[in-house]
Specification:
By secondary structure, the protein is of the alpha/beta class. The chain has eight helices and eleven strands.
Length: about 230
């Protein structure tokens, strides 16, 4: 049974979502504050975290950042009443895996959850094989850690998933639509800019010269290809 942590301070929504999730066969635990949510997330394993952005003690952004800094790579789906693009970008950059704006249809939430769980279960085979090196970068898949020149590289969970996917499919030209489907797992943000922005962030962190990348190459008119 998949286990979901719901970090949300609206009692009515907690009750509604908990009942629906349990009826769908999920085990659910909830926390009404960011601090208690972090304690739960770091003390026991969860398959997915539903995280409200507006919490009484701290923002969902802070919760997400703290969890990623503590190497908690559980998929995070942010729930918020705020719909600004800037908020979405900040959330994704901090390591959130998806973003759903209130009010939302429960059927859409369930679809997002199922997609994230599928993506998590279908992690690249490479993730169990150890360390992959290219240039001065080393990717340790079991610990989800990346170093460059021996120094830690701070990747968000999404950036690490994207890098893993590129390495797993090295030498293959990957279209933006294919990457959205395989890495994001759900066509929630069908803009090609989603992929381009994440590729740009990744290049900044693993390429010696991001303007002239050696490893994450653009194949004009088609997509991207990893060569390493």
């Amino acid at each position: 049974m998949k286990k979901i942590l719901l970090i949300e301070d609206e009692p009515g929504l907690v009750l509604t979502l908990s009942d629906r999730l349990r009826s769908e066969g999920y085990e659910v635990e909830s926390a009404g504050e960011g601090g208690s949510g972090i304690e739960l997330a770091t003390s026991q394993p969860f398959d997915l975290i539903l995280l409200d952005l507006m919490l009484p003690d701290m923002s969902g952004f802070d919760v997400c950042r703290d969890l990623r800094q503590q190497k908690i790579h559980t998929p995070i789906l942010m729930l918020t009443a705020r719909a600004q693009v800037e908020d979405k970008v900040v959330g994704l950059k901090l390591g959130a895996d998806d973003y759903l704006t209130k009010p939302f249809e429960t059927i859409e939430l369930m679809a997002r959850i199922e997609a994230l769980l599928r993506r998590s279960a279908a992690a690249p085979v490479t993730s169990a094989t150890g360390v992959y090196e290219f240039g001065d970068v080393a990717v340790d898949f079991p610990s989800a850690e990346v170093t460059r020149g021996g120094e830690p590289v701070d990747l968000s969970a999404r950036e690490f998933q994207l890098l893993s996917y590129l390495i797993e499919n090295r030498g293959v030209v990957l279209s933006r639509d294919q990457m959205l489907n395989d890495v994001w797992g759900y066509d929630a943000m069908p803009s090609t800019r989603t992929v381009d922005v994440h590729i740009s962030w990744l290049r900044q962190k693993v390429e010696a010269n991001p303007r002239h990348p050696q490893f994450i190459l653009t194949v004009h008119g088609l997509g991207y290809k990893f060569v390493g």
